[in-house]
Amino acid sequence: MTPEDASEFIQKSVHVTQPDIIAAKQFLLEQGTAGGYLVIEDLARCWANEYGESYPEVAPLYEDPTPFLEAYARQHSLRLAVFRAAWSLIRSGIFFSCGTIEPYIANWTFSTRGNKGGLNLQTLNVLYPEKLFRPQWNDQSDELNDADLYLRQLGDVSLHSGVESALRTALTCLRQDLYDPAVAMLGSAMEGSWVELGDSLLKAAGNANTGKPGKTVQDERSSIKTRIDAVCDLYERSDLYDKLWKKGSIKPSELRHTAQWSHVVRESRNVLHWKVSTKPYNSYSKVATLLMAALKHLGTLHHLRYVAAQKRKPG
Questions:
Q1: Which of 171, 234, 162 lies closest to 205 in space, CA to CA?
Q2: Helix %, strand %, coil % of the chain (to 5)
Q3: CA-to-CA distance for 174 and 294, rounded, in angstroms?
Q4: For 164, which DSSP code?
Q5: Within a 10 A sphere around the Cβ of 34, how many other Cβ atoms?
Q6: Which whole-number Å values give the CA distances from 264 to 119, 257, 279, 282, 293, in the listed order?
Q7: Are strands 109-112 and 58-60 parallel, antiparallel or unpaired?
Q8: How far from 130 is each of 3, 44, 80, 102, CA to CA, in Å?
Q9: Are the C-beta atoms of 89 and 28 separated by less than 8 Å?
């Protein structure tokens, strides 16, 4: 393999994925500053060495170097994930940047038959903050200041993409002290979750008669209030969903509890309507409380949606 081909291979193989960035954020937060500083280059190297494959100091291009090139690309991707995570945590106000802005220069020596040199990896060079610091007085919530850390709390629950987008926007609004817009977007995430759950429950019921609740769920003109109540009524049908109660470990009473939270969100969102007020007013503490509770309740709705979807699959 020529040095040019090796350089191109590495540059095309470097991918900084969202899961890597989220994991890197958690890694940085777990380090803690304890009145000191986080040295980002050292941490990036440790992170890459721990989760990446090792590679030789000199790339042996005189034989098939593909495994080594892939290892280098993966390690570099992990380093970039730490740099991206550091910048994101600074932007969220969780960490402060200290020291200087440093350049990270990607370089790797290659060896061919009788020739040595450096691979051209200039497109992979980036800038990163030298040090991070988190003073003791900066007690902002990690989750509410960073959407990735917030959504990470849901674990394996898979959200609908539109619901995830609405939650990210709600958190952005909260950080900008825009409480009514934050509630509006949380309301959108809540409403979408109930709509998706209702559709999944209807499909899981197959050709069975779902009665009035089923018609309400199917009716696109149904208000979100009546739709929530209809989904709860529908899920209480033991002849249709008793297996879901056992398989999903979510009882109808738990869904009713989530409905109560949803109605609080809905009523808080009604402030958007002219001449409609909400008490208590939408403040940081109120919206933050609703958002933290959303982790549990939206998790319930989407877990149940997933279990219902599994029921209708053949076999």
A1: 234
A2: 65, 10, 30
A3: 14
A4: H
A5: 8
A6: 59, 11, 10, 11, 11
A7: parallel
A8: 31, 11, 14, 6
A9: yes
271-275-278-282 Cα dihedral, nearest 10 degrees: 50
Q: Is-contact 82 44, C-beta < 8 A? A: yes
pLDDT band at 139 (very low <50, low <70, confident <90, very high): low
Q: Per residue in 195-245, pLDDT tens?
A: 999 999 989 888 888 889 889 988 888 899 999 999 999 999 888 888 888
Q: Is 148 helix (H, G, I), strand (E, B) or coil?
A: helix
CA distance 218 to 215: 5
Phi, psi dihedrals of residue 117, rounded to the nearest 5°: -175, -170
Give the residue extent of every domain in the chain.
3-138, 143-311
Q: Would you call the peptide bond into 252 cis, given omega within 30 degrees of 0 as the criterion? A: no
Q: Which residue is associated with the tokens 């990470």? A: 152
Chain position carrying tokens 């040019």: 4
Instruction: Tell me the pairing of strands 115-118 and 126-133.
Output: unpaired
**Residue 55 corresponds to which amino acid?**
Y
* Pair 315, 273: CB distance under 8 Å: no
CA 18 to chain centre: 8
Q: Distance between the two ends of the chain, CA-based, in angstroms?
A: 49
The amino acid present at 108, given as its one-letter code, is W
d(CA 298, CA 196): 11
